[in-house]
Amino acid sequence: MEFLKYGAGLFAGLVMVGGAASAATVCVDPGGAGGCFKTIGAAVAAAKAGDRVNVAPGQYNEGVIVTKVLSLVGSGASNTIINAKGQPNGIYIDGLDNGGLYGGMISGFTVENANYEGILLTNVSYMTISANHVVDNDQSLNYAASTCAGIPLFETNEGDDCGEGIHLVGVDHSTVANNNVELNAGGILLSDETGTTHDNVITGNSVHDNALDCGITLASHGPSPSATSKLPYGVVNNTIVGNNSTHNGLIGAGAGIGIFAPGPGNLAFGNKVIGNTSVGNGLPGVTVHNHAAPPGAPQSNLNDIVIVGNFLSGNAADDGDAATTGTAGINIFGIAPSYGTVIAENTIENEDIGVVINNPGAAEIHMNNFLTKTGVANTNKASVVATLNFFGCPDGPGATGCGTVTGTVTSAPWLSTPVGVNVAAGPGKGR
Hints:
The protein has 431 residues and is mainly beta.
């Protein structure tokens, strides 16, 4: 956890040390004070790779495109505003057309009113996106028609949401930390149209009231029409830790945190959801989906998903082919089997069901607090091991005041007290 906490600064420091000998500082001021550039775009064009662009307080009516390694630093999100009205994006770090972008940061801005994403990154490594306020983007979205006029062709699955507030595509080893992402179509999206998106850390963000999609989404999509690969690249081995995802997807149906490998060949394996709060979202708090597995098609992969130490409350039921029989904290749904699913040390309350398993693979569910009507519901034929969980009372599933289990679920031994409060196994069922 300490590494995750300080990882953003470490990465940024390494990048700056590597380029310290030649790095310069370029300034921006809306009035041109002190000989500074009046627009961020002009300063970015004049800066050299490795430079720092310091932006003074003010409103900047522009969209910023970055094609080199830079640190773009505002004076604080409360007073340094990029109003991208009429522009495709607020800030676009374009590694798709400028290979080898490695390092840099974006910090200290409000980014608002873009047609598509507030902040978009393609094909970059070791970037840090921190302490920004990303609000009211996705202005070109026609929700009724599920279209987003003019969205780039490489964004193969964003016609119905314009790409969301912060979007990472083909990005690796980058950190998105301590941002406030609100009132966009969706919050933070990691996808893979132009390359594998892997080994990123999404941490400490407040993602709320994005009405049409998930708060935080990890989704494997079809490749860009110009991609060399004709199979999905994958969204793999990312860590979602310590975020607050609330009241998202209440109109368009979105989870607090969603992980999706929807069809043949899609890859979303090895992702970790740790220590987040997911409350009051339009689908289950953590939602994991695969929807197609036709014979002979390339296999999807949703293996090795880890969901640990989260607080989930007051979320909605799932819908469509992944429908749950009531509201749920976690829903693991798949036509194709997924293996290595670990669900542990979560507290789930104010839901009808704690965890729903509707997947022909296997799941390990342990050391959770289920303060729900049903702790674990297994709607598939594969057996589920859900031992050493607390079901709301000392006497275990089905006892008075306790939640239940449904389907083929091994629930004994259970815990007689909540995890973290003098944990002990149920009477006669353990230690």
